[in-house]
Write a structure and sequence with these properties.
The chain has about 260 residues and is an alpha/beta fold. It is built from eight helices and ten strands. It has helices spanning about 40-50, 70-75, 95-105, 110-120, 135-145, 165-180, 190-200, 220-255, and strands at about 5-15, 15-25, 30-35, 55-60, 65, 80, 155, 185-190, 200-205, 210-215. Helix 3 (about 95-105) packs across helix 4 and helix 5 packs parallel to helix 6 (about 165-180). The longest helix has about 35 residues, at about 220-255. About 40% of the residues are buried.
């Protein structure tokens, strides 16, 4: 059974179709990196996989659990990390993690928060307000927040955004260690090097369609870039064709 399985996912904002029948499967303990241009639907897809948006079509299962069947169990399986850390700047690092530990219903929030701060290498900064953290420290604390409740699946939305070279390397090393714990990772990113370095499989989302899904082994940035450009053009063509057909159907209904 795949860790993450999405079948025929569609989503629209009013008349705008954002996702068009997206189907994907992620094996347990593997990393899938989804590339795509701005506006391709990557963030919308992750929000649907996280149970934050309901698709207009299709279904999502995480570790065999479907959101509509058991929302609480579904969300416990997932940790979400993005370029926005979802932390409270006026609180200390320790206070932030203690707050989330209580929110997750953990039995020892203070102990769990301190343990996670140590794991993230933030023990010396635990009593400092988060407003004084560097971008790299914020990202490490955000990873700790997402891992507190022991999720089996991590969803990462553009995690490298705004990081300098050192912070990016530190985050990459941290994410690589998570694989040894049999966690499953699905990541969206524009960072070609970082995304390829971590991936077992790569996909390209363009025009709301998943155009490419293939193993990452043997792919180098230069070779993948050519493949990416072709996939983006194909996805945009599919979206344009779909929009034209939809306008035609609307016109036919209007004439009838």
């Amino acid at each position: 059974m795949p860790a993450v399985e999405a079948k025929g996912i569609g989503f629209s904002f009013g008349p705008l179709r954002v996702l068009r029948g997206v189907t994907l499967s992620v094996e347990r303990g593997s990393v899938l990196t989804v590339f795509g241009p701005n506006g391709a639907g990557k963030t919308t897809l992750l929000k649907i996989l996280a149970g934050l948006l309901r698709p207009s079509a299709g279904a999502v299962r995480v570790e065999g659990v479907e959101l509509s069947e058991d929302p609480a169990a579904f969300r416990k399986l997932i940790g979400v990390i993005s370029h926005y850390p979802y932390l409270y700047p006026q609180l200390t690092g320790r206070e932030n993690l203690e707050f989330y530990a209580r929110l997750y219903g953990l039995r020892q929030p203070k102990t769990d928060a301190r343990d996670m701060l140590e794991t993230m290498g933030l023990s010396s900064a635990m009593n400092r307000q988060v407003s004084g953290y560097s971008r790299g420290m914020l990202q490490r604390l955000a990873v700790g927040r997402a891992l507190l409740h022991g999720p089996r699946v991590l969803l990462l939305d553009e995690p490298f955004t705004g990081l300098d070279h050192e912070a990016r390397e530190n985050l990459t090393a941290l994410l690589r260690t998570l694989r040894s714990d049999d966690r499953t990772v699905l990541m969206t990113t524009h960072d070609l090097d970082g995304g390829l370095d971590l991936a077992d499989r790569v996909a390209v989302l363009s025009g709301g369609s998943l155009v490419v899904d293939l193993p990452a082994a043997g792919l180098d940035p230069a070779g993948f870039l050519a493949l990416y450009d072709e996939a983006v053009a194909k996805g945009r063509a599919l979206a344009t064709g779909g929009q034209a057909r939809e306008r035609g159907r609307v016109g036919e209904r209007g004439r009838s």
